[in-house]
Structure formats: C-alpha cells, structure tokens
Write a structure and sequence with these properties.
The protein is mainly beta. It has one domain: Jelly Rolls, CATH 2.60.120. It has a 5-stranded antiparallel beta sheet, with no helix packed on it. It has a 4-stranded antiparallel beta sheet with strand order 4-9-6-7. A two-stranded antiparallel sheet has the order 1-11. The protein is globular.
C-alpha cells in the first residue's frame, strides 16, 4: 500500500527533501506509525530552516509563536506572518495542507515551537 497525500496521486518531490532528512536540526521525530507522524519543530530567532517538504496534511499545535517568512524552493516569498492578519497566538491549533519545498526564517524575537501531527492518507 503506497502512502499518498490527500488529493494527489504521487508526491512529486524526492525523499531527500523530507523535513527529517533535509532539516534535521529543526525537526525531531516524536512518533510514527502507518497512520501518523508526529514531529517537534523548533526554530530560534534569526534561524533559517533549509528547504524541506511535509508530505502529509497536519494538525499543528503551536506551543510558542514568532514572526516568520516562508519561501519556496526558488527563494520567492510565499508567506509573511506580519501581513497575514492578526498575530498568531500560542497555544493554538491549526490545520496545514502538505507543504511543497519551502524554507522558514524566524524573523521575530521568540522561538517558534510547534508539534505537528501529520496524517498519512492512503490511496485505498
């Protein structure tokens, strides 16, 4: 049984871009089975996470928040938390879709600390 992101036939990016492989200094595996993968993510102020992907949609528990920039693999800005409306509060819980190649830069004064529960979907 092949595991695939919801709404997609094939994940088009290589496993080498998976968050745990491409950015292991920022992502720690807490738990994994055939249904979910749970990651802890920590990004200190001023740090830039290397380009990585998140193959599955996830429920994200925001433990501490900060302003951040997200860029695509070509370094094009795709999200700026400062212009996204009301600042994110912690604690909070949010839903995120699978994320294609991206990097994150913590431009705020606080550590970004999240726990993400990635929901593995199957084609069955």
């Amino acid at each position: 049984m092949e595991i695939r992101p919801q709404g997609s036939q094939v994940w088009p990016w290589p496993d080498s871009l998976d968050a745990l492989t491409a950015a292991p200094d920022f992502h720690r595996l807490l738990f994994e089975n055939e249904h979910v993968r749970v990651l802890e993510v920590r990004i200190k102020p001023g740090q830039i996470v290397p380009v990585n992907t998140h193959r599955w949609p996830s429920v994200v528990h925001v433990r501490s928040a900060s302003d951040f920039l997200r860029r695509d693999a070509d370094r094009k800005l795709t999200f700026d938390s400062r212009t996204a409306g009301a600042p994110q509060k912690a604690p909070d819980v949010v839903w995120t879709p699978p994320l294609p190649p991206h990097s994150v830069e913590n431009i705020g004064a606080s550590e970004i600390h999240i726990v993400t529960v990635e929901s593995k979907h199957t084609s069955d």
